[in-house]
Amino acid sequence: MLNLHHLTLVILFVACSVAGEQSSGHFPAINNLQTAQDSPQSAEEKEKAATTSEISFPPLPFAITSFGAASIDHTFYVYGGHTGDAHAYCNEDQNHKLLSLDTAVESPQWKEIATDTPLQGLAMVAHGDDLVIIGGFTALNKRGEKANLQSRSDVRAFNIKTGQWRDLPAIPDPRSSHDAAIIGDTIYVVGGWNMQGPKSTTWHTTAWSLNLAEAKPVWKEMTTPPFTRRAVAAIAHEGQLFVVGGMNQNGGPTKEAEKYDPQSATWSDASSIIGQTDMAGFGVSGWSVAGNLYVTTHEGEVIRWSPQTKEWLKVKSAQEARFFHRNLITPSGLLVSIGGANMEQGKYTSLETIALP
User: Fold this and answer.
1) pLDDT digits over 193-204, tens only?
2) Are 8 and 71 in contact (CB under 8 A)?
3) How far apart are alpha carbons 326 and 132 in whole angstroms?
4) CB–CB of 291/304 below 8 Å?
5) Is 242 helix (H, G, I), strand (E, B) or coil?
């Protein structure tokens, strides 16, 4: 149960999230919480967990939140993000570097392989040899100047073979604090808002798709989502798009989740995720691996979607509770949480490797 001090922190945090792409903090993990879904580890799971504890990757060269991440084969890629203090936004504190980490080599090291526009609150997916970056916002102001935050409609692709950037069709409405996932050749973009400096901020009620297999790809409007949220997690799983958590336009953070079926172009409820407060759903990250959908939450829980019961089940606790991080998967099926922050530790440079049950 949260004490008064923690409750006050929650209220202050939500109130301070107007610029909102991320914060440098969160509550400590509740690692002693037991659920009815917990079960004793098998010998195989214990062996896997023991092996995983010996696997580590080098920290990021700088701490970031609200960035994009994707993987191609055995290499992780990270782009953009906020490197400065919470709720303070300027151009100098926005990452413009594309970093890579080859997880297959004996001594992996982060490398800077390209640069582009400083961004945060962006989405990033992988398609073939391309890393596709959608939207995000750029702070046009320098440190000490009045904030001038501009959401963008740019869609840029970086080809890891040629080392070249190219433009793809711009998304019809500038947006940041959104997310994207790819199913087959099609990118799906949901959530977010449009910030244009001193002008009023517009929350998006639209969602868009882009089929990269078409000769001339064109953004197509999806069926209107049954929510208006930002800071969501979009995850492709078993041919469907799951949208988890975030911040409602009215009502603050939420644990709600929905799923979209591209075949029928329909939305349906995916049940609220596990969490002691609604803040558990703010800035989550997830990934689909081996037929299972996993999400790591603000409260430090690793949870899994059950298609049988249509519920989320706790499977374990992370060592480091994070939000506004990103999850990627190694070829061997290990979940890796990258960057992010919590309220007590601030921003993370570390990567946590998690053996999944």
Assistant:
1) 999 999 999 999
2) no
3) 16
4) no
5) strand
